[in-house]
Amino acid sequence: MSSSVYKIIELVGTSDKSWEEAAAAAVAKAGKSLRDLRVAEVTKLDMSIENGQVLRYRARVALSFKYEE
Q1: What are the residues facing 58 on neighbouring strands?
Q2: Over the range 25-37, which residues count as b (16 or more CB within 10 Å of their CB) and which as e?
Q3: Tens of pLDDT, residues 9-55
Q4: Is this prediction's pTM over 0.90?
Q5: What is the DSSP-derived secondary structure letter of residue 7?
Q6: Measured over all CA atoms, what is the biggest interatomic distance in the chain, rounded to whole angstroms?
Q7: Rounded distance between C-alpha atoms, residue 42 and residue 24, angstroms
Q8: For the domain with range 6-66, which CATH number is right: 3.30.70.790, 3.30.750.200, 1.20.120.80, 3.30.1660.10?
Q9: 58 in Cβ contact with 48 (< 8 Å)
Q10: Neighbouring-strand partners of residue 10
Q11: Hey, what's the torsion of the CAs at 25, 30, 31, 36, to 10 degrees?
């Protein structure tokens, strides 16, 4: 059985529509420069507020990818 090593990074995605879009934005951006993404875990959700209105949704996402040999 072979062993594997994974790196975990944390990104914050933003959207003016939803937390789901914010999380998807973080994964999509990471996928442009990182290969072999394995798991995305939403670790925190928050919102930017201005004048009592939600301005932007933010999702903090922990992403793991496999180290290449």
Answers
A1: 14, 46
A2: bbbeebeeeeeee
A3: 999 999 999 999 999 999 999 999 988 898 999 999 999 999 999 99
A4: no
A5: E
A6: 57
A7: 10
A8: 3.30.1660.10
A9: yes
A10: 62
A11: -130
